[in-house]
Amino acid sequence: NRKALDYFSLLKKSANSNKEKVNALNGLMENMYILNRFDSASFYSEDLITNHRISNEIEASATLHIGRSEYWLGNLDESFDWLLLLVNSAPDARGAEAKYYISKIFYDKKDYTQSLKSLFELTETYNAYDKWMGNAFLLMSDNYLATDELFQAEATLNSLIENSPLDQVKEEARKKLKKIEAAKKEELVTEKDTIKAVDKNTE
Predict the structure, then answer these.
(1) Whole-angstrom Cα distance, residue 79 to residue 84?
(2) Is the pLDDT reported for residue 78 higher than 70?
(3) Residue 51 has what DSSP assignment?
(4) What distances in angstroms separate CA 23 from CA 47, 48, 76, one per listed residue?
(5) Does residue 33 register a pLDDT over 60?
(6) What's the mean pLDDT when you consider all of the chain?
(7) 97 with 64: CB under 8 angstroms?
(8) Integer distance in angstroms from the first to the last C-alpha of the chain?
């Protein structure tokens, strides 16, 4: 929020130690991202990373913030490069999130084969993180839909509804399943109308 930004901006200007400066930059980075000010979030993240006296945890957080910010800015290639650094160095929730965004970048580029491959790797490597496991399977269903593998998409979503421990993931799976069912009904109606039209023309 605005008050937090004002506080961390003031702290950055008045910082008398590296610790205070790092705290200020970290606060600015996180709050800019929360406010969807991705240019600024990326800027403060890079400022943090150039500080060689930060902890590995803060460096990982800054790397993730750059990767996510560049993704939402539409800079997919730059986002990919930053996220890949994190996947190769962070076997934790940050690594799981980075792997998810990498899979999403492949999906956005319509490289569904690579997106699915990346998602399978995510579910094997980061299966301790329910949120990213759930998001991975949701994105898998989108990939299956994009490649007309309707049965696989439905099976994936039904499995999530039955097995995911997270209500938010289950709800999202239900929404996607309803859209598929509505599309199937619409397609069936169109097919019936086409058959009727053909029958009428042959009378």
Answers:
(1) 9
(2) yes
(3) -
(4) 12, 10, 28
(5) yes
(6) 92
(7) yes
(8) 70
Contact 104, 132 (CB under 8 A): no
Amino acid at 192: K
Q: Cα(20)–Cα(23) distance, rounded to whole angstroms?
A: 5
Buried b (16+ CB within 10 A) or exposed e, 165-203: eeeebbebbeebbeeeeeeeeeeeeeeeeeeeeeeeeee
Record the tokens describing residue 168, joined without a space. 């938010």
In angstroms, the CA 62 to CA 53 distance is: 13
Is 129's pLDDT higher than 80?
A: yes
Q: What are 125's two structure tokens? A: 């490597």
Contact 12, 25 (CB under 8 A): yes
Cα dihedral sign for 75, 86, 93, 65?
negative
Alpha helices in 15-166 (DSSP H): 18-34, 38-49, 56-72, 76-87, 93-108, 112-125, 130-146, 150-163
Over its C-alpha atoms, the chain yields an Rg (Å, rounded) of 22
